[in-house]
Amino acid sequence: MIRPRVSRFPARKQALAAVAVLGAVGVAATACASGSSGTRSASASATTSGTRPSPPRTSTGPDSPSSPNGQNGQGSPNGSAGSTGSSGNTGTGTTPPNSSNGSPDSPGSPNSPTTPGAPPSNVTTPTAPGYQPPAVPRTNSDVDCSVAKCIALTFDDGPGPDTGRLLDLLKAQNAPATFFVLGNQAVKYPDLVHREYAEGNEVGNHTWDHKDLSKLSAAAVQDEINRAADAIAEAGIPRPTLVRPPYGAVNDTVRAVAGFPFIMWRVDPEDWKYPDPARVADQIVSHAKPGRIVISHDIHKTTVDAVPAVIQRLKQQGYTFVTVSTLMKGVELRNGQSYFNRPPAATTGNGQGQGQGQGGH
Predict the structure, then answer these.
(1) Which of the four, 78, 218, 261, 303, has the lowest number of CB atoms within 10 Å?
(2) Could you read off the pLDDT of 133-181 as tens digits, one per residue?
(3) CB-side exposure of 276: number of CA atoms within 13 Å?
(4) Which spans in the chain are helix H?
């Protein structure tokens, strides 16, 4: 009679049992390790795949300003691009009513209802003073705009291919302007950013890539502003201390964490929407008043084409062209406050009331 094979090899039976036990222990250990380090595993996976975001920068005060390619979303008052999330130096879009003619505010403008909010605990709230006047005198910086008939031309979304030609025109006419620069364009055209400042103009911050700040988290708002400031400083000029929020869109969170004054505008020729030099010039000249800030975009050839007529006609009316800082000399610019023009003499000491008025981009 032949016995079952298992009973003939007792050692083998014990070995198989031991292997089974060890396997069960291994499975349990793996499950335990996986459960206790899920966050670390996810982080490692993200790092390996190259998608791990870098930590947001935080603003701690003043450093040393609107945008050429501007990834403008649909409805952008700045109109660098016409479709939602698109990027480019040209295009069309839709805009709130022209702020220069007294139209009501539109959604997303500085005067629209804001969503109450405060920066989360992991965000550094910037400290005063934020704004500092340019260390090096700008062209026409000795003008007293509380007396003189001043106006400030500002150009957003650049630099762009026509910015060099614009700088030639401004220099020839002794008409300084303020350029609110996009960080991603500063990386693309650092020599033009440097030239803007070197020739007596002012350079401000228009964020990194023209996102609507009112739709971002506090940390993301700071990152948009600080990345742009870094890029502008890398062009060899002081870090900007004036900010123009894309679309003029701010809310309580943006005001709390941005760390700088917001420079809006009172005259808007909608040059992104109407690429007609004659119309652009007419709109600017017809809505010009002493102390006003004019917005336009140096990324549009037709806008640069309009500048000679604007300068000539306004000079004939007795205007002096100045940078925003010269226009606001003697005004206490406050972090998180919006400024549309030089305030009347009664309010120049505290900057109050500058957030009132018609909308912005």
Answers:
(1) 218
(2) 998 899 999 999 999 999 999 999 999 999 999 999 999 999 999 999 9
(3) 8
(4) 5-8, 10-36, 38-49, 163-172, 183-188, 190-198, 218-233, 252-257, 277-287, 301-316, 324-327
Q: How many CB atoms are closer than 10 A to CB 138?
A: 20
Question: Under a CB-based contact definition with an 8 Å cutoff, are residues 170 and 196 in contact?
Answer: no
Q: Give which of 285, 271, 277 is closest to 361, Cα–Cα.
A: 271
Concerning whether 297 is annotated as a catalytic residue, the answer is yes
Give the residues across from 150 on adjacent strands.
320
Could you give phi then psi for residue 258, rounded to 5 degrees? -65, -40
Helix (H) or strand (E) holding 348: none
* Alpha-carbon separation of residue 1 from 4, 11, 13 (angstroms): 10, 22, 21
**Could you confirm whether 194 is annotated as catalytic?**
no
Q: What is the pLDDT of residues 71-109, one digit of tens each?
A: 333 333 333 333 333 333 333 333 333 344 333 333 333
Tokens of 216: 């971002």
206 contact partners, CB below 8 Å, separation of at least 6: 65, 66, 67, 70, 156, 157, 180, 181, 182, 228, 243, 244, 246
193 within 8 A of 178, measured Cβ to Cβ: no
Looking at 156, 212, 268, 271, which residue is catalytic?
156
Q: What is the pTM of this model?
A: 0.67
Are 358 and 111 spatial neighbours (Cβ–Cβ below 8 Å)? yes
